[in-house]
Request: fold
Amino acid sequence: FLSAAVTDKISALSRGADAVAHGRFQTRVSIGGRDELTRLAADFNSMAAQLEEAEARKRELEKLRRDLIAWVGHDLRTPLASVRAIVEALADGIVDDPETTARYLRTAKRDIGALAGLIDDLFDMAQMDAGGLRLERGYNAISDLISDTLESFGRSAVERGVTLSGLAAPGVDPVFCDARQISRVLANLVNNALRHTPEGGAVKLHAYPVRAGVVVEVTDTGEGIRPEDVPHIFEQFYRGEKSRSRATGGSGLGLAIVKAILEAHGVQIRVESTVGQGTRFAFVLPQRPDPYASHPLVRQRDEGRAARGEGRS
Reply:
């Protein structure tokens, strides 16, 4: 009887191993008892579960790859087609009056900017994935970065019919950061807010001091983010509901870049959102270097910058 029971358990394990070998990772072996074979079956089931999870991740990555090809193809073709049509119209003399020519050139400039932005996003994300993000941190005036961002997006906000405002409270300067990279964070967050805020809405960029440093927040009165999308919005190429993402555009990389830059600074970003009411993104920048902070993405070129107090102010 004992020999038959052992044989049955070994046979069950053998059948399970054969099933897993053929790619059926959902296979589990059910063996009762408290002997070594029972523990082996438990280990087998754990292994099968890990393989099943890895296979699911592989399928998701493959789906992301296909989506990336489709999204990038669309996002490249659309402005390219527009620029091509404009160039052909100008070259063939179809358009010759100065006013129309100027309007066509403005459109071409906008579309070329969109192409450059997409390429920059792809390049930056590839660098970050490879651990190549370099930070040059120093003492910088966050109030200047906010002013620059508001100026950069002022025209876009007017064209969209959205009120864009900002405020740097007393005591926010300086912060210890890479000014260029934090400018990229602010730009991506404001751009994201403008894209998802309808005409008549408002986007605000504020900074105010707290004990831990300086809170920087971007709030909008836009469409909000569905609760099921919130955990995924910082993933590469994630755009949530497809109908919404197509209408608002974007490469699906902006928020992923934001997260990568802030994590390289040792900073976490928080998001609060209510569908139909708006969204708030917030993070805290330090006002002095943390000697214990480190991150594998950080490659500071000059560790003496902080000690010398160099940087934008």
About this structure: Residues 242-248, 294-313 have pLDDT under 50 and may be disordered. The beta strands are 138-140, 163-168, 175-177, 202-210, 213-220, 269-274, 278-285. The longest strand covers residues 202-210.
